[in-house]
Design goal:
Blueprint (H helix, E strand, L loop, with lengths): L4 H29 L6 H28 L7 H30 L4 H29 L2
Helix pairs in contact: 1-2, 1-4, 3-4
């Protein structure tokens, strides 16, 4: 891939976030299916997925740094990040409103927390996809 370090970084983030989120969802779904209905057991699973995400990101960026050249982000990189955040922020807002609505209907805290986590992950994934699109096709 003939890409800048910034673009490689976005790819690393996208793959790692999707991978850890899928693993979290598999474990969380298994827990929900077996009748876990309190929030505390999910905290450990979530923290474990965050630690795994950090480890994968560090390893991925070390590999990218060793195999390529690190450049400072330029104006184009900053514009791509800004536009991507701007285009994906609405997903987080929708998730927050969905969580508030779930609370109004007295859904369990477990479901409210998972709605918020899902909206956060979807928003981040959208941001990374927009960034990749802008790097590939231009801003």
């Amino acid at each position: 891939m003939n890409a800048s370090f910034e673009e490689k970084s976005v790819w690393i983030h996208l793959v790692c976030v999707l991978g850890t989120f899928i693993l979290y969802c598999l474990v969380a779904w298994s827990m929900l299916s077996s009748g876990v209905d309190t929030l505390m057991p999910f905290v450990g699973v979530f923290l474990s997925s965050v630690v795994l995400l950090v480890i994968l990101l560090v390893a991925g960026h070390l590999l990218a740094a060793v195999t390529g050249r690190i450049e400072k982000p330029d104006e184009r990189d900053r514009l791509i990040v800004w536009r991507s955040e701007s285009n994906s922020a609405w997903m987080l807002v929708v998730g927050i409103f969905a969580a508030i609505t779930a609370m109004l209907f007295s859904l369990s805290n477990v479901w409210v927390a998972h709605i918020l986590i899902l909206s956060l992950y979807l928003s981040q994934t959208m941001q990374y996809l927009f960034q990749i699109r802008y790097y590939r096709r231009g801003v």
